[in-house]
Input
Amino acid sequence: MGGFATLEASGDAGARGRAHGEAFRARVERACAFYLDDLFAGVPLDGAALRARAESIAAIVAAQAPPLAAEIEGIAAGAGVPPWQVYLLNARTEVLNARVDECSALYFAGTCVQGQTWDWVEELEALCVVITHTRPDGHRYVAFGEPGMVGKIGLSAAGVGVCLNILFAPHDLSGLPVHVLIGALLNAGSWDAARVALDGAGRGKASHLLVGSAGGQAVSIEFFGDERHLLEPADGVLLHTNHCLGRGAAGRTAALANSCARYDDLARQVAASPARDLARARDILSSTAGGTDALLRAYRESEVFPGHRVGSCATVLMELDERRLHLRRGPHADAPFQVFAL
Output
């Protein structure tokens, strides 16, 4: 097993989207089909309702983030799939809001090191891609994610890094879907511009974003339905899993015991050593102790998606000051990292 497939795309948003779609045509087709025919089968929406939802999402993206709408349209054109399917793919978190135990993230302000495990359905591991974008104005960023998406986890030449965790709350999408918002953050030319993008993202979703910057600035932002919680680093550290920290004790429910266990494990491991560097972050996010509560988790049968297995599809580490992203495929602590430099 090798690393993730890669692409360098340049030009305006539409051109980069088309390059994405053309290079990964079969992967985009497979990802759209996998969600539509399989994972979305469990949501209370039929095909017509899903398409209507996608058209609503397209209108939101076109109004709030026109360059990302152009990128999505370019992906669809390049891959030869209907645009509504790519819009739906970029909003799959909001459509599913599936209660799957996944993703553990951390940030060290003193060294500007950030990272996470990304846990999801096993089939997506082999489909994921890494795209290095270069805009006409020279801005560059590297984005890891599912084929067809404009953002998931990434790092920009402005030194802005983005990690994400799903949260679980009822919501009606009234702002940018989280994956589109991540695309906007990676396109931001500065930390201040990234904060503006966060402030204008709207609510009506259930996700957490850990946004860090070279120079030690960082914020942990929880979108929890109609609520929004901002968390600053404590003792130079930000940690997050899949429960809402802004709700305090009320967020630590029995239904989220796995998330609470992983958060507590992160906190214990950070406290156990004064090191706050890339090597320490790698060691923490490579921990396989704890069985189903491990930070790096082997694939196991999913209760939410019968017939599928869920585990750590990838581990991402970022050195924000150096503009380097390290990426490891699969739930294997001894697997090598790919390195991407901006």
Q: What stands out?
A: The mean pLDDT is 94. The chain has one domain: 5-10+97-341.
